[in-house]
Write a structure and sequence with these properties.
With 207 residues, the chain is α/β, with parallel strands linked by helices. It contains 8 helices and 7 strands. The protein has a 7-stranded mixed sheet, with helices on both faces. Helix 5 links the parallel strand 1 and strand 2. 40% of the residues are buried.
């Protein structure tokens, strides 16, 4: 948790308690279901929680912002973001039912009134949101095909509505494969967090 306090000094005691509760929760569930890489559990807050919260460094969601986390897996980035932005609403979806079961348990255990989770494919979602968020579910062109109709164009935050995608490595070829309709911005996560883990990781904003 020290690494979270290092970069997010204005969190309330309740938010810190909720974030602190994530480690025992995921340690327990990860022993039963492979939610996150077991070798990463020693670096849980850096590799999963802080990585998810790179989005919170890029945009501060205002009250009433609606976000969908597509391919949430065990609840990342959605669960940490829902803790940090209690006045925004989060829907977390994944096609794997046992993972959504765990996410729903996390929502209940943490008392998150602003989050829901459903076993659902992105293509089946009928609502629209301000932002689509995700963490390295698939290649960008495929992800865009799944999600390009899930956000509307009526932006109310300081950053335009669109897709916020966390991914590592060289993304140039994936971005080149996207159609010309997209404005594409790449934001190296190392500008916010100075740990070596983030050297090759970026936040991509498509709108």
């Amino acid at each position: 948790m020290d690494i979270i306090r290092k970069y997010f000094s204005i969190l309330t005691n309740k938010q810190l308690e909720q974030l602190e509760a994530l480690l025992p929760f995921y340690t327990d569930w990860n022993s039963k279901i492979n939610l996150v890489s077991r070798k990463d559990m020693d670096q849980f807050y850096e590799h999963h929680v802080l990585h998810s919260l790179a989005i919170a460094k890029y945009v501060q969601f205002i009250a009433g912002t609606k976000i969908v986390d597509v391919g949430t897996g065990g609840g990342f980035p959605g669960i940490p973001l829902a803790i940090v932005f209690p006045e925004s609403s989060f829907l977390m979806v994944d096609s794997i039912g046992k993972k959504i079961m765990v996410v729903n348990n996390a929502i209940e255990d943490l008392g998150l009134k602003n989050a829901t989770a459903r076993k659902q494919r992105a293509e089946e979602i009928k609502e629209q949101f301000d932002y689509v968020v995700s963490r390295a579910v698939t290649n960008l062109p495929e992800f865009v095909l799944w999600t390009e109709d899930l956000f509307h164009g009526r932006s109310k935050n300081k950053k335009p509505n669109g897709i916020l995608y966390l991914k590592g490595g060289d993304l140039r070829s994936e971005l080149d494969d996207l159609s010309g309709r997209w404005v594409k911005t790449i934001h190296p996560i190392r500008q916010w967090f100075n740990e070596d883990y983030f050297d090759t990781k970026s936040l991509i904003h498509l709108f």
